[in-house]
Amino acid sequence: MIPVLATLAAILVSLAGIILLAASDPKRRRVFGLPEARRRPVALACLCLVAPGIALLIAGQPAAFVMWLAAVPLVGWALAALSPTRVARMGSGLFRR
Amino acid sequence: MIELSQARSKRLLAVHGWAGTVLGLALYVVILTGAVVVFAHEIGTWSVSGTRAQQPLAAPMDAKIRELAGQVDPEYLDDLNLFHNGAGHISAFFHTHAAKDDGHPMDKGVRFTFDPVTGETLTRQEGFGDEFEDPLSALDHFLVELHVNLHAPEPVGLYLTGILGFAMLAAAVSGFLLHRHLIKDLFVAPRLSSRLLNARDRHILAGSWGLPFAFVLAFTGAFLSFAGSIGLMTISMAAFGGDQQKLIETIIGMPEAEDATPAQPADLDAMLRQSAEMSGNGPAFVAITHYGRADARVYAFHLAAEGGLQSQQHVFKGSDGAYLGPKPSIGTKPSAGDAAFTLMGVLHFGTFAGLLSRVIWFALGLAMCYVTLTGLQLWLRRRADSPLWRRLGRSVPIVGYGLPIALAASGISFFLSLSAGTMLFWTPAGFLIAAGLSIAIGCLLRDETQLYRLYRGLLGATLIALPLLRWLMGGIGWDGMLESGNDIVILLDLALAAGGLGYLYIALAHRREPRWSGVEREVAAE
Amino acid sequence: MASQSDRGWFTAKRTRWLLGGPMAVLIAIMAMGAMPLWFPTGAAGVDHLVFPLILFPALWAAGFFYAILAENLRRAALVMTALALINAACIAVLWTIS
After folding, report:
1. B468-489, pLDDT tens digit by residue?
2. Which domain holds residue B21?
3. Which chains does chain C touch, 3 or more C-beta pairs < 8 A?
4. Which residue segment(s) compose the domain that C57 sits in?
5. Does the structure show a pLDDT above 90 at B222?
6. Read out DSSP for A3-69?
7. Does residue B25 lie in a domain region?
8. Paired strand residues for B288
9. Under an 8 A CB cutoff, do A66 and B190 touch?
């Protein structure tokens, strides 16, 4: 059970990094007519992105590491494929409830 | 990202486009079936409504093996392989090393199957190792063979899938070199300004994120296809005078000096119990060499323990049961070659860490399918003015939807023929019939929107039919599954039903066509 | 590249097809066959047999993309022919000592 939980946790932390990068990405914002982001915490986002992988390697969890490595691009793609307008619509839908 | 001269870009684009277009649909067949066979073992168990023994090779079987050994030609005691199918039946293949008419090395002997719970012998077949029939594994074998060699004869099938691996490798590398703004475009969601731009964005986004594993899956797949065919042949010709068997023996680890003195075999169950304790799980495969001789060896092969990647193998002395130590899959002691070989399998199969790794690899496969299909769509959109390409373009929805429909249909006909026991014939027949029907529909129905709806509806219906038919024909409901630890059957039932409902929903729901905000404009050729 | 176009059948395009197609495959197969001669045998004495098998797709991809990307086609043809000959020689040596 530990490798599964470690993998899922690592994916979640990396997901946070990807969200930070996507939300403040200049081209993404320009293409969808949004004002430029005030801050772009690239260092923090990249740390969130890669730290879980390094942690898994140090913790001696090779299986979890390989699963994390394969899952992060998938998660990143799924997230990047959602347009900001769609994300906003989903967000407002959540809050209305 | 990488600056290329115009001529180079043009040539790379030609490689990328034509590799994807000419081989794209065949590649899609291999990738989608590959995604499905990540669950091959689970599908095998599911198709027979679960197994009574969760770890069949951990059940006591020493007495049964002794009994069966007495029933075969002593020549076949040379080697004994023990493995199990999805139904939990154990195969005991007593054999010796022989060659087929074309000189290809192949094991020859007698194969029994028996039930590890009751000890009852179920079948006895004699011949070459690749000729045995196992109707209960018809569905998973059919799917695996489709992925591995497209059901073409050996070695042609392996060459075909190997060449497709090369095409995928070429497409991945050329795609990487071509896309100058890889990092900059990594977060640009597909734009809705025009149909063409949307198709381009979708393909590039999925391709960019999928790039690392497209490369990994293509590389490892090409290795798996070519190593056993052209690879062993070339190296054996260059370094072993053409003797493939000798090369294989050297790679796996030289057998020790022979001692043909007869000796009573020690208790197999005790050895396997000890091996399971050391490995953390029951054996997945057992091989016994020189059964009944003083130099007998028992090799117990275990899948990676929880959290690890490396499978394990333990060796015992067959005559007195003494533990001789661990053995890598390749060579007699740990080496870089063994580690690299293991990694190839781990990265290609994705079955190293239970359900989670399988789900991730399945999703990777589907993502690759998406990249292939959107690439084809982009190619066609760019040539929308050409009547010839428009006509050829029909093949994309036909294969895109026809293949999953036909795969589901092979499962449907497996269940329908279960009671008659004719699964070996009807599983591929069902696939072919559904594929033929899908092609006919695609050729006859003119309206594209209607065609997509019909295909989605058919896919939804066939997917939903699978768990229903399994339940009707297998006769075992979910309560029985939980009791016997066959949760995987329930999970697959639910996954198929959910997928089916999803497709039915998008087939029936009235969805508005996206409104393209901008005019069709020139899109950069990359 | 243009200098190739006046050489009868061997136009630039055909030469590139030959180099990227059959030649890249040929070199990959020959390099795989020749590798056991010079590759270190490793701890278990099998690395020189296993790594050629594993590296075969990489050998092919290297030759293929070299042929596609080369600007100087004449040099590419010379390099690839030389590689094929060297590997053929290695295989011949391997053959005689095995």
Report:
1. 999 998 777 788 788 888 889 9
2. 6-49+149-224+349-508
3. B
4. 2-97
5. yes
6. HHHHHHHHHHHHHHHHHHHHHT-HHHHHHTTPPPPS---HHHHHHHHHHHHHHHHHTT-HHHHHHHH
7. yes
8. B80, B298
9. no
